[in-house]
Amino acid sequence: MQYFFSNDKTNDKIVLPREESKHCVLVLRYKIGDIIYVANGKGTEFTCEIIDTKNSLVELKVVDKKEKVGKVDYYIHIVIAPTKSNHRFEWFIEKAVEIGVDEISFIECSNSERKKINIDRVNKIALTAMKQSLKTYLPKINNIDKFSNVISKTTQQNKYIGYLGDCSTEFLSHLAPQQSSYCLFIGPEGDFTNEEIETAVNYGFNSVLLSKSRLRTETAGVMGCMILNGTNHE
User: Fold this and answer.
1) DSSP state for residue 24 in the 8-state scheme
2) Is the pTM of this model over 0.90?
3) What are the tens digits of pLDDT across the range 216-229?
């Protein structure tokens, strides 16, 4: 089974975007009359028949649909400082989406080495990971913003910030309740400053550890996704 993506639906017809159409017909060699599966990024899976491949666009007829496919009763928001390395940064996005994340935000901190990201490329990586892992929900992706702006707007019920500077900090796996909404902040390679941690605490965040080991930024982000998903599958 493989998912294609489209949110171009009118009545019982769906048109695949140009890149998806090219992949469908030229790479995978699907043809008129074949059945394929389409996810709209909002929880719906469509079973479709290919009815036209003209003008470099694949037109489909919906023959069945399932809504809220893979819907969960919790919400995971990872807020992370992008790494200097593009490869490591993009690896985090891919793996977080595969494991399960509802929202990803990027922050500029005092110790950040990256202050800009290519948001279009980030969205493309997230979409590819969604299809690869057979998910129907595409995470919300927020462009990079200053730490102070993001932390002041966080609305999740359970708020955590990963921090290595306090040996009394508890493990996230011990604190996170089941079936709730979570926000986890992951800092840059140089970690959060004392001032940033103080700001987080003032906004109701709990300082947490993710592992007994010192983790790279992107590894910490993936570990956070694993812990919070695992909390809800115990």
Assistant:
1) I
2) yes
3) 999 999 999 999 99
